[in-house]
């Protein structure tokens, strides 16, 4: 049986482990964190990600802990709509609606698809050694010394600041700050919202909310800011920033516990990687193509990576042929999405000047909703390969 080690137990790592196991590989996932729950945050998975989850065999388990999203749209801070999203038309074309989750629930559903012992937490990978027809992973378990193991394939799923990527591509500049900081929270009680996916664009700032199972609501406040800038009380800062914005924004903030708020600066791989494969080491997820969250495609692209890697390892005559195909097929698509996410942010949340915002808003008002659906469809439309 062929053996793989996956570095990182995020969405990309867990999904890749599920996919590789489905095509008969023995897999171990090494995760640095001792506790995996990402409290206080939600995540939306687009139709392409949902289709990938179905191919991995976990679609139903995941849908059971998520909320299918219906109508949505974009508005201005006073509440007037700039555009409406015809979610039904989108879902018809794409084969699935968008689903939203508490991140912890999505992670748990993915972890449940792996057998005991497959995911090992509290393990930090230091480096990989490329060998002929194999790769060696060097790691340390919390509280004990360094050790290493040689396997047929190493999957680097170690996220936006990937150590493995930095080792494989020492001349690459790595992830850069995208100019946006995001504060996120989840209401502790259900709150009524007019639509399921609600986005409001101001000047260099955006407030978005998504309905979660049970009527609780996930919200985010994204704003242009210097890297690393922090406020003592991020919830109070968000309330100040969006003071006077339309309902139900104040109610969502009032229904959120200050301690359940997270803040993350956004990083992206602005310089595309020259390859996603180096001998028997392959990059997936944010390690390969970290993008800004403005298109909500990061996790869905990671899920596509997982399905494609497993399918090609299963169908191509050799591991090396499968990796060549993975690099050839995944790099152009994912790097196009990274660019599109950046451009979406620049004309959306990050746009700041009064005239520029006014012109943009006028343009959106004139765009028929079918054009908005087309933009959504462009990146969420994906035909998955079959597995097994
Ligand atoms: P990660 O989730 O970062 O996982 C990497 C894992 O590797 C971590 O668990 C880490 O602990 C582990 N690790 C790192 N280094 C080591 C090491 N040396 N040894 C062992 N383990 C290691 N995407 C969406 O699709 N929808 C959204 O709604 C959405 N919202 C977002 C909002 C924000 C504010 C941000 C910043 C991103 C958002 N994204 C969204 C992007 C999405 O979160 C990522 O694309 C996705 O989670 C990528 O998963 P990953 O597994 O590649 O990386």
A few lines on this structure:
The protein has helices spanning 11-22, 47-55, 59-63, 87-94, 103-112, 163-168, 234-241, 249-254, 286-289, 298-315, 319-347, 354-366, 369-380, and strands spanning 3-7, 26-31, 42-45, 67-68, 72-75, 81-85, 99-102, 119-121, 123-131, 134-141, 146-151, 153-156, 176-186, 197-201, 205-211, 217-224, 262-268, 277-278, 281-283.
Strand adjacency order, main sheet: 6-5-14-15-16-13-17
The overall average pLDDT, rounded, is 94
Radius of gyration: 21 Å
Largest sheet: 7 strands, mixed
Rough outline: globular
Structural class: alpha/beta
Percent of residues in beta strands?
25-35%
Low confidence ranges: none
The DSSP helix count reads 13
Number of E-state strands: 19
Structural description of this entry:
The model has no long low-confidence stretch (mean pLDDT 94). The chain contains 13 helices and 19 strands. Helix 1 packs parallel to helix 10. It has a 7-stranded mixed β-sheet. Strands 8-2-1-12-19-18 form a 6-stranded mixed β-sheet. The chain has a 3-stranded antiparallel β-sheet with strand order 3-7-4. It starts with a strand and ends in an 8-residue tail after the last helix. With 388 residues, the chain is an alpha/beta fold. Residues 7-13, 30-33, 43-45, 123-125, 157-160, 163, 182, 264, 266, 285-287, 293, 296-300, 302 line the site of flavin-adenine dinucleotide.
């Amino acid at each position: 049986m062929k053996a793989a080690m996956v570095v990182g137990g995020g969405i990309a790592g867990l999904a890749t482990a599920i996919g590789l196991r489905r095509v008969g590989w023995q897999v171990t996932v090494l995760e640095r964190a001792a506790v995996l729950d990402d409290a206080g945050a939600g995540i939306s998975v687009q139709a392409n990600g949902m289709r990938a989850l179905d191919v991995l065999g976990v679609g139903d388990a995941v849908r059971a802990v998520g909320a299918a999203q219906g109508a949505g749209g974009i508005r201005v801070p006073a509440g007037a709509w700039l555009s409406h999203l015809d979610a039904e038309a989108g879902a018809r074309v794409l084969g699935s609606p968008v689903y939203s989750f508490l991140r912890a629930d999505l992670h748990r559903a993915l972890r449940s698809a792996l057998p005991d012992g497959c995911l090992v937490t509290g393990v930090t990978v230091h480096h990989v050694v490329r060998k002929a027809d194999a790769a060696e992973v060097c790691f340390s378990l919390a509280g004990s010394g360094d050790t290493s193991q040689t396997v047929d394939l190493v999957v680097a799923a170690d996220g936006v600041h990937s150590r493995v990527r930095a080792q494989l591509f020492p001349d690459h500049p790595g992830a850069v700050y995208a100019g946006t900081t995001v504060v996120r929270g989840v209401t502790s009680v259900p709150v009524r919202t007019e639509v399921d996916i609600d986005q409001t664009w101001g000047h260099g700032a955006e407030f978005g909310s998504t309905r979660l199972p049970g009527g609780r609501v996930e919200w985010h406040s994204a704003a242009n800011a210097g890297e690393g800038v922090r406020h003592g009380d991020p919830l109070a800062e968000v309330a100040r920033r969006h003071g006077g914005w339309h309902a139900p924004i104040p109610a969502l903030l009032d229904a959120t516990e200050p301690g359940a708020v997270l803040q993350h600066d956004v990083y992206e791989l602005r310089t595309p990687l020259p390859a996603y494969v180096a001998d028997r080491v392959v990059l997936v997820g944010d390690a390969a193509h970290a993008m800004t969250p403005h298109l909500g495609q990061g996790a869905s692209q990671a899920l596509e990576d997982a399905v494609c890697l497993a399918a090609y390892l299963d169908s191509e005559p050799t591991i090396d042929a499968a990796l060549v195909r993975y690099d050839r097929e995944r790099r152009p698509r994912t790097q196009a999405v990274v660019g599109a996410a950046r451009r979406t942010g620049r004309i959306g949340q990050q746009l700041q000047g009064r005239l520029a915002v006014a012109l943009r808003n006028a343009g959106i008002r004139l765009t028929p909703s079918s054009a908005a659906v087309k933009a959504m469809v462009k990146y969420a439309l994906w035909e998955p390969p079959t597995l097994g």
